Amino acid sequence: MYLIKNLQYHFMKDLGLPALMRFSQRTKKRRPKKLDTCFGPPLTSTGRLKEIMTRHYLLSRYAEGARPVAWVTSGAPVELLRAFEFYTFYPENHGALCGAQKVGSELCEVAEGKGYSQDLCSYARIDLGVCFSGRTPVGKLPKPDLLFASNNICQTVVYWYKVLAYHWKVPLILFDTPYNFKDIADSDISYMVGQLEEMIPVLEEVSGKEFNYQRFQDVIRLAKEASLTWGEVLATMKARPAPMTIFDAFGHLAPIVSLRGLPVALNYYRVLLNELNDRVKKGIGAITDERKRLMWDNIAIWYKVRDLSNRFAERGMNFVAATYTNAWAETISYLDINHPFESLAKAYSLVILNNNLNHRFELMERLVKEYGVDGLVIHSARSCKPYSVGQYDIKRLLMDRLGVPSVVIEADIADSRVFSEEQTRTRLEAFFEAMEA
Amino acid sequence: MKYFLGIDVGALSTNAVILDVRREIVGYSIVQTGANSTEAAEETLEKALVMANIDRAKITSTVATGYGRISVPFAEKKVTEISCHALGAYYLYPDTGTVIDIGGQDSKVIRVGDGGKVLDFTMNDKCAAGTGRFLEVMAAKLRVSLDELGDLSLQASQEVQISSVCTVFAESEVVSLVAQNHPTEEIIRGLHRSIVNRIWSMVKMLGIRGAVTMSGGVAKNRGVVSLLEERLEQPIHVHTEPQIVGALGAALLALRLAQTAT
């Protein structure tokens, strides 16, 4: 049985799904593209990105029985699972997708109907809503054999994944990362390494595969290289005009989040980097008239990405940096194939959300300087408390120390019910007036 | 003679200011916005024209501001109230470094730079706490007029603590305080304290620079202003007509618009 399922999985991954997607591309009626004069030519790599992510989600239907399936948090050290060839599903990435497709709020309501508070993260509510109702824009989610969470991004994931473990009746592995108040101690590293080592027998049992150190090192190498390449992709936006906007980068982020450690992610970023370097050489900008350069703080407002992108581009304002997209270029590069466990512990405990506010301010100060940022848009996300706390201090510090103006938008990542159009418009227009005065 | 018009269509009142070329205020008016903001804009303009004793044709340029700025069809330009309040406050009090505007629907704190330029600002989040609407709801519940609130609160020798910042919950809190026979003045003072505490945290987010000028309808409430002065430990500039500050800023922009056009 396993053999058949495994053959089917490989056939669909390498031949079936690519052929199917090519066919559906060809038969799909091509709508004439609206000519937007404020944007430069679209990136051709975006087509490849869509292919990769569509195939990833479609493949989940063939994963059950062929591969061990794990549901993973965005900040968990997935590299260890890759060594056991898990098919991984990222509820947060799926939550963003639901948000972008504007079905986030109705899935949240499903969870709320079961008693989950509106104050809970919308990614969590969407995911629980999907589990309870079976509804998802991607058709069907693969049933997990294992849940893997790390509290380096928030504490919510701990309780969210406990609910998942109860719902699916599968084991949950938690990677506990001490918060970095000032410096990371050796005892912290050994505490985390101990946890990673303890996971191995559990992973062996769930996957039915023996741990292969060399394969693990391969994954570490691939993840590190993909992260470095993603960093180079972002760095192309230092050019004037920037060849891409952060709103594009929010989309191109998907492979480094959910396919990290696989060759496909690295290959994709090499293709994207080539295209961006070429655009820089030719002086092609993401928007035609780049007059101001902005930075974004916090997770995207997924149901408003296109709308916001237009509103800023119309005024010649381009987002060239974001703390959010930078998060996957910042610490994964600490990975070291010669010290895989120690470097995983370091890379995953020093992520922006597990690090002190001083670190965040220094990071933002560096991004402002390196990318020539004129202003900052701060998304205060109702869902993401660890990301939103301290934003007013950072706002004041950036104004006082660097004279960089900023605006706060109160919204949410995937639940559009808390977005207030009129209040956001006034705040943004006042920001535009201050920037242009 | 040329004249320049600023119209501020707010959630509660719609205000107009007419300036002459010497930047002197020659007419202004304050009317209730009601259900139709375009009509309110017409009405306030007519009243201001009467006060200025000029003909409508003499208006060279118009800038509209406030939440209803899009419903002023005759305005050449629409500008947010944040820029307008900063400019208006700076015109009235050139030492202004911080503007606190408590309007009907929202409240904001603005850091003002040279020439009345907006350096930074913060607004209340999606909630009526710390806004004029909060006081309006409470005044109705206590059966006193909005104008009486300030004097009544200054008469109070004690104050009652209002624990909820939510307008809806605070309203039910007031109902139970009334039922417990607490004097109205003491409840009002407690309500004012609650607004001041909310504004205080917004001021703290931005930090105070220079002199503080208060604008918007709530600035007419002496009870709120005195509690806020106490909390900020500094005096606050309040114009005799604080509601026209936004329209004044808009009129100044209308003048600037006409000058750059010629």
Provide structural commentary.
The complex is a heterodimer of chains A (437) and B (262). Chain A is built from 19 helices and 8 strands. Chain A is an alpha/beta fold and 437 residues long. The model of chain A has no long low-confidence stretch (mean pLDDT 93). In chain A, strands 2-1-3-4 form a 4-stranded parallel sheet, sandwiched between helices. A 4-stranded parallel sheet of chain A has the order 6-5-7-8, sandwiched between helices. Chain A has one domain (2-22, 38-436). The radius of gyration of chain A is 21 Å and the shape is globular. Chain B has helices at 37-52, 81-92, 132-142, 146-155, 167-179, 184-206, 222-232, 245-261, and strands at 3-9, 13-20, 25-32, 59-65, 77-78, 96-102, 107-112, 118-123, 211-215, 236-238. Chain B has a single domain (3-126, 199-261), classed as 2-Layer Sandwich (Nucleotidyltransferase, domain 5), CATH 3.30.420. Chain B starts with a strand and ends with a helix. In chain B, helix 6 (184-206) crosses helix 7 (222-232). In chain B, 43% of the residues lie in helices and 23% in strands. With 262 residues, chain B is of the alpha/beta class. Chain B has a 5-stranded mixed sheet with strand order 3-2-1-4-5. Chain B is built from 8 helices and 10 strands. Chain A binds chain B through residues 380, 392, 395-396, 399-400, 405-408, 410, 418, 420, 422-423, 426-427, 429-430, 433-434, 437, and chain B through 67, 79-83, 106, 111, 117-123, 125-126, 205-207.
